[in-house]
């Protein structure tokens, strides 16, 4: 057995080695063939470039000589010396020819020849030496062929001779002097032939340039004339033999007849043949009547390179080195393949085991598995498939689905099988089928079955019975629809009931508050006062519960729409703190706000954000006695973070898990002790999630709680400073407040709340009357109900905003309905839900009702963002604000219209704050204007003293917020107005 195994291993090794050698040789042949083609392309490309370069160089040289000859023939000197060869004229012509010979350096001779064929002037140039031939040495050239050829030319024509050896006195000059002659006739102004200009070009210089360029070519390069004679070739001994008497002629036709057969019949091109790789071009003057030439002047440039063969490539050094390196690799590969072959028997046994395993899985799987041929006949099925189809698997073989299924089921299955066969892709369908075994809902995956050639020969199907799951889903879907219908009905009921619930509550709370105020003012019976307190408190508690239930219902029904508007976060927070201050004082708590990183102005739904703050702060105040509640504001790039911390009772981890659920508090004892509906935190979390944020809580029992809100906010784009079209001011408004409501009780309650604070009130009970009162009485602000008798409040608002005279009238909505998206679109300054908070209503109305004229404030700061924020706060405080980016702009604004107050930055470009103050003190109209210097820089003590002497108020940006600056500005304006009134009274 060992010998047999060794013999098999050796035979496998030799077979593998032979196969690898054959493959290696085939690869080398392919590589060699590729290299052969690449070498051919490279040789032809290089030789094409070299031949083109030589042809271009020679053509440029000949064109230059023709140009010199033509130019010389047209000169006045040539014409005059051929008419009159006197000493003076001869001297001028000699200087001209000498200068041209010196400039070109490759002209062997320049001659002026008369009409009789005798040389008139001749200049010889040899090895850089220029000689003017004296008259006695001038020769008669009338019998020379080139002279006779030039004498036959017309004006402007040029003669080009062939390139041959110079012959003197009938003998070829030794050493050889290759010469090319170019001539053109000279005519007088009246058309008489005077003679000619002839230039002998030193051909050796042309040949040297030819040799230099030819070195770049592959193989050999020849320069031959039109007859194929060698002018220059790879064997210098054979050059010019055709021109030497008695020498054996050498040419392309004699040495390379195959090449000459191709070259002589064509102008240029490339060929591959038995002679090798041929590249050729013919140099001849342009085919026009201006150039005359000898028949043999056409120079031919021929490059011939050897055609690389596969044998030469395969046997070159690089390939031999490759063979030496490849042989050890082939031996290793052959040994490795022999080792793999010996292991193949073990792999075959493993494959057989896997095949048996797959058969067992197929036979015993609870998935229904079938394999069908292209005609739909079942060729294999397992027991699970037999149970579904209602027949044993062996009875299904050879049958189609029509034998065990209804007609509708058969049509569906045939369609799905055909889809797999046509698309060759795996498909999955949920199918409702009826077999002999019963009706089922199956999740069936089909796949194409292919043969060794990749052709589809059948369809495989695996089906999972999901009948019970489908029935459960149908039941759940019905239950879900019923629940959603109930939830929708609940939301609709609550929304429709909001008016009915809030209208009586408005009367109960409003009349109760009026009675309570009267009882307190008249020092009525304490029991009556206490009873009225209980009535008002119970009414407001009921209102809070109704509002919470409506809010949670609207959120669940998806009826809450966010309205983004630019808002100063610190102002919104201060408003919430101010609203809850009385409740905090009642519990003995201290409210404070910390601004870690000023959020500035952000685009957010201010109504919903205020609701979240009120809920969190109210929750903290409710569960804290004689403690401290802190509101912390912070902004990190595009995220607003708000944290409400208290020192109250705290919570356990179990309590924190359920506090955000509707109608849930920490436990039932807390509900009994502190009250509440348990909806505030649930509403807050859902509102925060609607804004794209999250809310979290951290707490320990007895150590307080911290609720953290994180909301994404976008960058606030400052409003454009373009004032837009001018709006007519109309008559000035007085301090009247217009209350428009069709409910008499509601009007009476609002009138009582406003008149108790000294605010004059007029009323309207319909939309038409409201518009008439606005136009006739010019109120300062209007309180508007939406549900009027003749028209809606939205129609009243639209009519006001369409009239330029009343477009800017402040409108406060006081309704039993919820805020609408039209609120912001129609410029409503506030939406208050009845029953309203009377103190908040009075504070809001007083913002728009002022006894004096509107203050004029100028804000000067080079920080655009800070300037816009401060202007927004001042406008909310009732000031008319203008802005400037530097001191120079500020002075221009002040000279145009002196302000009542200037808020001035210290450090600015162009002109700083101190320079502005100095310029104002020197101006008679600006010296009395109050200045508040707002700066983030450290101000030296001597500068502070100087500012105090100038009555300038100094405020640090880092120490106070925008609202504080606005309050200081308002106080300063009020003091100035008071002093002005006092001065007027005393005067």
TrEMBL record:
Ranges in a coiled coil: none
Subcellular location(s) per record: Cell membrane
Domain of life: Bacteria
Catalytic activity: ATP + protein L-histidine = ADP + protein N-phospho-L-histidine
Enzyme Commission no: 2.7.13.3
Residue intervals passing through the bilayer: 320-338
Domain PAS: 354-424
Predominant location category: membrane
Membrane topology: Multi-pass membrane protein
Keywords carried by this UniProt record: ATP-binding, Cell membrane, Kinase, Membrane, Nucleotide-binding, Phosphoprotein, Transferase, Transmembrane, Transmembrane helix, Two-component regulatory system
Every Response regulatory domain range: 736-849, 856-972
Record domain Histidine kinase: where: 496-715
Principal EC category: transferase
PROSITE patterns named among the record's database cross-references: HIS_KIN, PAS, RESPONSE_REGULATORY
GO cellular component, one term: plasma membrane
Name of the protein: histidine kinase
Gene source species: Dyella thiooxydans
């Amino acid at each position: 057995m060992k010998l047999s195994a060794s013999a098999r291993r050796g035979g496998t090794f030799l077979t593998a080695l032979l196969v690898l050698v054959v493959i290696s040789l085939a690869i080398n042949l392919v590589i060699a063939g590729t290299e052969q083609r690449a070498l051919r392309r490279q040789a032809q490309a290089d030789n094409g470039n070299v031949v083109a370069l030589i042809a271009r160089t020679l053509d440029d040289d000949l064109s230059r000589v023709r140009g010199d000859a033509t130019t010389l023939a047209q000169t006045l000197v040539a014409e005059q010396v051929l008419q009159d060869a006197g000493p003076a004229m001869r001297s001028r012509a000699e200087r001209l020819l000498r200068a041209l010979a010196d400039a070109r350096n490759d002209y062997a001779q320049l001659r002026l020849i008369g009409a009789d064929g005798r040389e008139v002037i001749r200049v010889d140039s040899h090895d850089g030496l220029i000689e003017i031939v004296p008259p006695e040495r001038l020769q008669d050239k009338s019998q020379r062929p080139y002279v006779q050829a030039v004498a036959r030319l017309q004006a402007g024509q040029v003669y080009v001779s062939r390139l041959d050896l110079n012959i003197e006195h009938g003998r070829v000059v030794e050493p050889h002097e290759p010469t090319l002659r170019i001539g053109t006739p000279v005519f007088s102004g009246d058309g008489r032939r005077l003679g000619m200009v002839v230039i002998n070009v030193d051909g050796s210089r042309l040949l040297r340039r030819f040799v230099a360029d030819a070195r770049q070519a592959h193989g050999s390069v020849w320069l031959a004339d039109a007859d194929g004679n060698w002018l220059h070739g790879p064997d210098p001994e054979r050059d010019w033999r055709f021109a030497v008497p008695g020498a054996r002629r050498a040419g392309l036709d004699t040495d390379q007849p195959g090449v000459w057969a191709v070259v002589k019949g064509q102008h240029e091109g490339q060929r591959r043949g038995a002679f090798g790789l041929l590249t050729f071009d013919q140099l001849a003057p342009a085919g026009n009547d201006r150039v005359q030439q000898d028949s043999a002047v056409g120079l031919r440039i021929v490059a011939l390179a050897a055609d690389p063969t596969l044998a030469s490539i395969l046997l070159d050094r690089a390939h031999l080195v490759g063979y030496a390196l490849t042989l050890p690799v082939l031996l290793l590969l052959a040994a490795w393949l022999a080792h793999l072959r010996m292991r193949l028997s073990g792999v075959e046994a493993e494959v057989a085991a896997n095949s048996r395993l797959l058969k067992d899985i197929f036979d015993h799987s609870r998935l229904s598995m079938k394999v069908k041929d292209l005609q739909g006949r079942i060729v294999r099925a397992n027991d699970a498939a037999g149970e579904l189809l209602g027949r044993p698997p062996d009875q299904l073989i050879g049958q189609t689905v029509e034998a065990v299924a209804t007609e509708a089921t058969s049509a569906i299955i045939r369609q799905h099988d055909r889809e797999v066969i046509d698309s060759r892709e795996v498909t999955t369908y949920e199918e409702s089928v009826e077999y002999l075994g019963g009706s089922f809902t199956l999740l069936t995956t089909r796949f194409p079955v292919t043969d060794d050639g990749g052709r589809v020969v059948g369809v495989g199907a695996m089906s999972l019975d999901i009948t019970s799951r489908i029935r459960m889903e149908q039941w759940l879907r019905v239950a879900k629809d019923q629940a959603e219908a109930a939830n929708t009905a609940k939301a609709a009921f609550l929304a429709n009931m909001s008016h009915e619930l809030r209208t009586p509550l408005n009367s109960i709370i409003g009349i109760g508050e009026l009675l309570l105020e009267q009882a307190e003012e008249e020092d009525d019976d304490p029991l009556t006062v206490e009873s009225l307190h209980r009535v008002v408190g119970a009414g407001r508690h009921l209102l809070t519960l109704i509002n919470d239930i409506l809010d949670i219902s609207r959120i669940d029904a998806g009826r809450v729409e966010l309205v983004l508007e630019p808002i100063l976060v610190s102002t919104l927070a201060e408003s919430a703190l101010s609203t809850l201050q009385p409740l905090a004082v009642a519990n003995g708590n201290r409210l404070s706000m910390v601004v870690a990183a000023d959020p500035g102005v952000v685009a957010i739904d201010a109504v919903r954000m205020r609701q979240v703050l009120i809920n969190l702060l109210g929750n903290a105040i409710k569960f804290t006695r004689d403690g401290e509640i802190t509101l912390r504001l912070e902004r990190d790039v595009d995220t607003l973070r708000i944290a409400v911390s208290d020192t109250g009772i705290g919570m356990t981890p179990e309590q924190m898990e359920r506090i955000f659920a509707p109608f849930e508090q920490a436990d039932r004892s807390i509900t009994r002790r502190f009250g509440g509906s348990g909806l505030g935190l649930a509403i807050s979390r859902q509102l925060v999630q609607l804004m794209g944020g999250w809310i979290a809580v951290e707490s320990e029992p007895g150590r307080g709680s911290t609720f953290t809100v994180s909301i994404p906010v976008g960058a606030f784009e400052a409003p454009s400073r373009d004032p837009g079209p001018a709006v007519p001011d109309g008559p000035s408004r007085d301090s009247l407040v217009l209350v428009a409501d069709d409910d008499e009780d509601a009007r009476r309650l609002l009138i009582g709340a406003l008149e108790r604070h000294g605010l004059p009130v007029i009323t309207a009970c319909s939309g038409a009357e409201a518009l008439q009162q606005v136009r006739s009485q010019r109120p300062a602000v209007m309180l508007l109900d939406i549900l009027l008798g003749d028209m809606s409040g939205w129609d009243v608002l639209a009519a006001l905003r369409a009239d330029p005279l009343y477009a800017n009238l402040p409108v406060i909505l006081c309704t039993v309905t919820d805020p609408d998206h039209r609120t912001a679109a129609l410029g409503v300054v506030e939406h208050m839900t009845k029953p309203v908070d009377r103190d908040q209503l009075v504070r809001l109305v007083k913002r728009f009702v002022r006894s004096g004229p509107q203050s004029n404030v100028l804000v000067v700061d080079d920080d655009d963002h800070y300037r816009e924020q401060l202007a927004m706060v001042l406008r909310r405080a009732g000031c008319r604000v203008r802005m400037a980016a530097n001191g120079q702009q500020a002075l221009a604004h002040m000279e145009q219209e002196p302000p009542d107050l200037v808020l001035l930055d210290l450090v600015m470009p162009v002109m700083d704050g101190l320079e502005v103050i100095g310029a104002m003190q020197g101006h008679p109209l600006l010296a009395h204007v109050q200045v508040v210097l707002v700066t983030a820089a450290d101000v030296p003590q001597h500068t502070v003293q100087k500012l105090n002497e100038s009555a300038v108020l100094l405020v640090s940006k880092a120490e106070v917020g925008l609202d504080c600056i606005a309050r200081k500005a308002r106080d300063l304006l009020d003091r100035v107005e008071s002093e002005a009134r006092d001065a007027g009274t005393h005067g």
